[in-house]
# Entry
Amino acid sequence: MKKKLCSVVVKALSVVFIATFAVSASAQKAGDNLINLGLFYIHTMDSSEPVKVTSPMTATMAGSGSTVNDAATLGIAYTRFLTDNISLTIDGGIPPKFKLDGTGTLAGVGKIGDAKQWSPALVAKYHFGTADSKFRPSIGAGLAYVWYSDIQVTDKFQQALSSKLHQASGGSGAYTSAKSSIDLESSFAPVLNIGASYAIDSKWSVSGSLSYLFLKTKAKIETAMPTSTVKSETELTINPLVAFISVGYKF
# Structure
């Protein structure tokens, strides 16, 4: 009888031990590291100012503007849990290529150009629940540094801009031969984040998050006219809403 009772107790303790181990193994606790791979989808909530000529004369191209199209790319995130509830995440990924289209008086131009956007971010997050919770919602805030590369300008936009600048400088008739280049300013962008993760087992999890970036940039344009280089600029408000769906691995 005693042997049978001992056997039952041992089995019960084994079940409890295994269950406890399984729960703690799926935890996200202080000292844990996570790598997440997934898809970023960037929805731009954008607007723009009219193009303004700043040198060698001043003028405003009334009604001119541009819009930034949505984009998607592969993303990666590294997370370090500082405590059971607080973590730091570094987000990055393959820089998405954004297309700019003309609006207003530039609508007839269609595509103005495109550029790749680099925007690594550092985000501090608070995770609700306990270290043993499989499902953990989170909120966070941080800062991204944004810069641009591979900026391309279409011939059609360069021709339209040449004509408008020629007219703004007092010229008559059409002039479409000038060449233009665009530089987009780098900037810091505050980030707000909400998300949630679900632990599949002791190592793997799935996550989803939504981030909002307060992002503006100034586009500076230089156009080589026959007698001078004309400088103009416009301010773009991009304010992207970024969804990130990913699979995570804990180590």
Notes: The helical segments are 2-25, 155-168. The CA atoms of residues 17 and 171 lie 86 Å apart. The first strand starts at residue 33 and ends at 44.
